[in-house]
Write a structure and sequence with these properties.
- By secondary structure, the chain is an alpha+beta fold.
- It has a single domain, classed as Hotdog Thioesterase (Thiol Ester Dehydrase, Chain A, Roll), CATH 3.10.129.10.
- It is 22% helix and 35% strand.
- The chain has two helices and eight strands.
- The strands form two sheets. It has a six-stranded antiparallel beta sheet with strand order 1-2-6-7-8-5, with helices on one face.
Amino acid sequence: MLQEMAGNEQKARIGARSQSSCFACGPDNSRGLRLHFQRNEDGEMAAEWIPESELEGFRGIVHGGIVSTVLDEAMSKVVAASGAKALTAELRVRFRQQVPSGCIAQVRGWIDSQNKRMTKTEAVLVSSDGSELAHAWATFLALKYPGDIQS
């Protein structure tokens, strides 16, 4: 009985979270990143990002957790655009260079493979000169109850 109640509470929390309050892309989250993704000609989801100094871990360098969040969001957006209702199950990030605050960067995410239950994705964060700052790989698993998440 308690496990069932906890499961129902979890479903309510997942379903109640609106897109507009998302930390990464929500326009109504005053503390969020407010990333705006669009599908590019290659079918990738892409956004421009200028990280603010408040996101630094060390002076002038954006915190790695924030960089990971941005990469995860790009992959999440491309999974959602494919029509899948899935959540990140595994995330791996390779930091290739320091990500400086105040500089323009572009994040792109794409799907590597997809089946009924699992979607494998990649994303990159590149500087304005085209050099790769970070690269990520993620596995998304389809929700058991797709009505649990709102797009």
